[in-house]
Amino acid sequence: MVILIIFFSKYPLHIRSLLLVDHDEVRFFRFMVLYASFAFIISLIREVIKDMEDMEGDRKYGCRTMPILWGVNASKYL
């Protein structure tokens, strides 16, 4: 979301600007969405790996993490 906030601070969204599409802005927006998606996926993978490493402690305290609910193999597949 931080990347998309930077995009919208540079190119504010106006009704008038929707009618006049600049191809550089569209290309930049696509790049920002791709970059933000990559950052989200990497963060999700990191959190799942951390949850798999801490399964014993999470189970001890009754946490309901994905590796506990789905199992390690399903979490690795995700």
Structural description of this entry:
Helices cover 79% and strands 0% of the residues. By secondary structure, it is mainly alpha-helical. Helix 1 packs antiparallel against helix 3. The model has no long low-confidence stretch (mean pLDDT 81).
Summed over residues and divided by their number, the pLDDT gives a mean of: 81
Helix content: over 70%
General shape:
elongated
**Tally the helices: what do you get?**
6
Question: Are there runs of 5+ residues with pLDDT below 50, and where?
Answer: none
Radius of gyration: 19 Å
Strand content: under 5%
Q: Could you give the distance between the termini?
A: 22 Å
Strand segment tally = 0
Structural category: mainly alpha
Task: Tell me the series of helices and strands, N- to C-terminal.
Answer: HHHHHH
Biggest sheet statistics: none
List the helices and strands and how they pair.
Blueprint: H1 2-10, H2 15-19, H3 23-53, H4 55-60, H5 66-70, H6 72-77
Short structural summary:
The protein has helices spanning 2-10, 15-19, 23-53, 55-60, 66-70, 72-77. Helix content is 79%, strand content 0%. The longest helix is centred in the middle third of the chain and has 31 residues, at 23-53.
Structural features:
elongated; mainly alpha; 78 residues
